[in-house]
Each structure stands twice: as C-alpha cells, then as structure tokens.
Design a protein that fits this description.
With about 290 residues, the protein is of the alpha+beta class. Helix content is about 50%, strand content about 15%. The longest helix is centred in the first third of the chain and has 25 residues.
Length: about 290
C-alpha cells in the first residue's frame, strides 16, 4: 500500500483542485476519497511521483463528473451557483483574496466546457504541465494548450470587476449588511455599484429569483426583503469567510434554513452578490446530527 503520509501531504491541494473543477463540496469530498482508495492499490514501485499521480487521478475523476453533470446543470431551475465553502475568518493580516476560488469566478468557469475548465484550472491555478493535463482530458498537449488559452481569454473578458484588497472588501460587506438590517434603502444604493448583479440559487426548492437582477435600485429592493418576517431573536446573521472572502451567513434554526451570501467588491462598492438558498447545497454547513434528520 502506498504511504498514508504521502497522500496526506497532497490532500489539501487535491481537494482544492476537485472543488474548483466541480464547484461542489460533496463532489470534491467524494473525488478525494476515491483518489485515496485508488492510491492504496498503487504498488510502491509505481509511486515515484505521488503529486503527479494523485493530481492526474483526482482531476480525471472530477473531469468525468463534470462532463456527466453538464446536462443536469443546463436543466437546473434558475441560476446555478457553486456550493459555498464557509469557514471562520482568516488572519487579519492576510492582505489579498484568492480569486480562483471566489464565487463569482467559479460562476464564470461554469460557462466553459469541461475540458476548458479543467485545463485552465490545472495549468493557470495549479501550474500542472500540459502533457499531464493531456492525460486527464484525453487530448494532445498542443490541444490542451489551446484549451487553456481559449479559457483564459474568456475568463479575462467575463470575470467581474473585483478588488483583491481584503479591507476594502470587508468594509463594503459590513456596509451592505448594516443597510439591509436597518432597512436603509439609501444606504444600500450607496454601497451598490451602478452595474451590480444579484444571482440567487434556489434550485427550484427554495424561493429565489430565477433570473439575475441587475441595477442598484432593483437589487436594493430585493435585498430589503431579506429581513421581512425574520425573527431577530432566533435568526443568526454573521460575517464569515465565504469562498475565501468575507461574506454573510444567515442561519434560521426554527425553519431549518441557511442562506449564504458571497460578494464581489470593486472601488468600495458591491459589484456582484451570489445568494445560495438551495438546501441541498448547504447541508454540509449544518451539524452532522442535523444533516441526518
């Protein structure tokens, strides 16, 4: 059996690759677990380059999964957003944000073909050589180079305007949250970019806008509905790390509901808001005992 230590050294990287390719916490977990099972069957003589081998295995699993999920996502009710990764706030001295895992960037990656997305993530984010990527997607290295180049051009053209400054981002999120909680319509307009876009993912299960909402006045009116009917004595609203950047998490224990908001910020104003309401995408955020019930 190949060594556990060698696998554990790569686990975080493998999960990062899997999540960026699939946009799903559950699928990333499954892919890493399956990679571990395959790694256990590798004779020691074939494990000369664990990182390269494990990267190829997990990437291939995720590429196949993404390809098979394509039709389901095209038939999805309303906008499809990634499953959010929510953690506690990071060190205050961490100055920049990781664009590659941001909700807005992952939404852009959804518009690529599975092969383009895989090539772009492996090469541009994780510096995997083209010959190794070719093994994953079943193309020639030259073809993979073209896939990555085409994906890079599209990402540059469609990626939202956003700041990588954490302080600026947090300040805008705090201002947005304060305005919503206080019912301050003018305050909301002040913090929203003139071209702000709101996307909400309810998956046909939770009530959500089925088309993107564009413009500060429309977004402000829609955001104002968040507090309607909310019992502030029981509902918990907090700023948390959402996909590597300050976001907002709303937990309503009485109604067993979670909503996660991710933000893009530029020039001190919010340019994009992604609201995930689909409970199937938020099960991993509940305590284990609640997920089973």
């Amino acid at each position: 059996m190949a060594g556990l230590a060698a696998f554990e050294q790569q686990r975080t990287r493998l999960w990062g690759i899997a999540y960026r390719i699939t946009g799903s916490v559950a699928d990333a977990d499954d892919a890493v677990q399956e990679t571990w099972l395959r790694w256990q069957r590798v004779p020691d003589a074939r494990a000369e380059d664990p990182a390269a081998y494990l990267t190829t295995v997990v990437s291939r699993l995720c590429y196949d999964q993404l390809t098979s999920a394509r039709a389901r996502r095209e038939a999805y009710v309303g906008p499809w957003l990634p499953e959010p990764v929510v953690t506690d706030s990071g060190p205050e001295d961490r100055a920049t944000l990781d664009e590659s895992v941001g909700m807005a960037m992952l939404t852009v990656l959804e518009r690529l073909t599975p092969a383009e997305r895989t090539a772009f993530i492996l090469h541009d984010v994780f510096a995997v050589p083209f010959p190794e990527i070719a093994e994953v997607v079943g193309r020639t290295p030259d073809s993979v180079r073209q896939l990555a180049s085409r994906a890079r051009r599209r990402v540059r053209a469609e990626a939202p305007r956003r700041s990588v400054d954490r302080t600026e981002h947090r300040r805008a999120v705090d201002a947005f949250l304060a305005a919503v909680m206080e019912g301050d319509f003018d305050g909301l307009l002040h913090v929203l970019d003139p071209e702000v876009v709101w996307r909400s993912d309810g998956g046909g299960v939770a009530t959500a806008a089925r088309l993107p909402i564009v413009g500060p006045e429309k977004v402000a009116r829609f955001a104002g509905r968040i507090t309607q009917g909310v019992d502030r004595e029981t509902v918990q609203v907090s700023v948390r790390e959402v996909n590597g950047a300050p976001g907002v998490v709303v937990v309503d224990p009485a109604n067993r509901r979670v909503i996660v908001f991710a933000f893009s910020v530029y020039g001190g104003r919010v340019t994009e808001i992604g609201a995930v309401l689909n409970p199937e995408k938020l099960r991993h955020l509940w305590p284990a005992e609640d997920r089973r019930s």
